[in-house]
Amino acid sequence: MTPEKFRTLVSTVLIVGVGVSAALIGAGFVAALAIGWQGSLIGAAHATGSSTADFGGLTGRLAALEPAAIAQLGLVTLLATPVARVAASVVGFVLERDRLYAAITLAVLLILLTSIFVLR
Amino acid sequence: MTPQADLGIFAISVAAGLIGALAGVGGGILVIPALTFGFGVDIHLAAGASIVSVIATSSGAAAAYVRDRMTDMRVGMFLELATTTGAVCGALLAAVVAPAFLYVLLGVVLLGSAGMQVSRMGEESPPTNQPSPLAARLRLESSYPDRRLGREIAYSARRIPLGFALMWIAGLVSGLLGIGSGVLKVLAMDGAMRLPMKVSSATSNFMIGVTAAASAGIYLGRGDVDPQIAAPVALGVLTGALIGARLLHRVSNRSVRLVFLPVLVAVGLETIGRGLGLGL
């Protein structure tokens, strides 16, 4: 893999991550202006007591097309973008046959995943 | 939030994204006080929105910086080894260490380094020097296209162990105090490793998203990321960061320093204020 293609790969991962999350957050935001954060675009009844900052019951609220849930999915996509970027960098360095940096980047990815899923 | 408040938060966030993209920082220094003082947002929700802001600045700006060869990906990945390890240590230590003294210490260091920034104000490229064997072995030498100067500027990292140690501290501090991770990264690359200012800023931008992502799960789990606040912040910051990323290669290194310096001083003062319990 040429350095040029490597940069394109990493840059594309970032653009896609940012683009998808901006579209979801924007859609949720516009829908919220129309029907409120906890409304439902398909007219489903709102589960009382849930907060818009609660990520636990996200799938159910997504199924109801709740504006807050659409924006939350966008926020999760945004927060996952740097992780995807590091993962793409591992692939890039491997394809560049740069063993040292493939190892360094893989170590960063493992530390990152550990801190996200273990330390909380 | 009323639509007027949404618009206000959006506008502040555009400014935060713009400044963050140029200075290589996350913009939390602008977003958090604006949300809490300006819009009466709860401090935890403001901190959650700030994490979103850091990642939005980083990902939005870095997409352009990586493509334009402003970000040095090897420098970034090598130093992320230090920042992520430091951040994990910071998160583990946070339960044990009383951070008041650390806040004051960090603030004094930041204000002290403002003097160094002033003294380098006119410097458009770092002094060329004998490349260190370590920089060659780690491939921490490259060049970037400076459109302002109209030529390719070559550079080679100096004092790599010091830079790596400072980056570990930057990670530690962000894990422990949740502040200042961007300014410390720029200072480590520009101040210690003597990388060009624009490369330091663009590479810091590339890195801060990863540091923030490491703790994003904690904020999500605690319920601190509320789309009612975080959505207008994310949309505003992304807009600002995309504008800022188009500007960086056109402006001079001096201009980047002129944006970075007030951010550095503000973070320094804010940090000392927190340490002294002034509740800033």
How widely separated are the two ends of chain B?
23 Å
Q: Mean pLDDT of chain B, as a whole number?
A: 88
Structural class of chain A: mainly alpha
- The tally of helices of chain B reads 11
Low-confidence stretches of chain B: none
Shape of chain A: elongated
Considering DSSP H and I runs of 4 or more, what fraction of the residues of chain A is helical? over 70%
Gap between N and C termini of chain A: 37 Å
Uncertain segments of chain A: none
Sheet with the most strands of chain B?
Answer: 2 strands, antiparallel
Overall average residue pLDDT of chain A: 89
Q: What is the H-and-E element order of chain A?
A: HHHH
Largest interface: A-B, 54 and 54 residues
Oligomer: heterodimer
The tally of beta strands of chain A, per DSSP, is 0
Shape of chain B: globular
Beta content of chain A comes to: under 5%
Number of structural units classed as domains of chain A: 1
Strand adjacency order, main sheet of chain B: 1-2
- Provide the structure class of chain B: mainly alpha
Q: Helical residue percent of chain B?
A: over 70%
Give the structure's gist in a few sentences.
The complex is a heterodimer of chains A (120) and B (280). Chain A is mostly helical.
Describe what you observe in this structure.
The complex is a heterodimer of chains A (120) and B (280). Chain A contains four helices and no strands. Chain A is an all-alpha fold. Chain A has one domain (3-117). In chain A, α1 (3-35) packs antiparallel against α3 and α3 runs antiparallel to α4 (99-117). The radius of gyration of chain A is 18 Å and the shape is elongated. By secondary structure, chain B is mainly alpha-helical. Chain B has one domain (3-275). Chain B has helices at 3-23, 28-39, 43-67, 73-93, 100-119, 133-137, 160-176, 181-192, 197-222, 227-247, 253-275, and strands at 141-146, 151-156. The mean pLDDT of chain B is 88. At the A-B interface, α1, α3 and α4 of A face α3, α4, α9 and α10 of B.
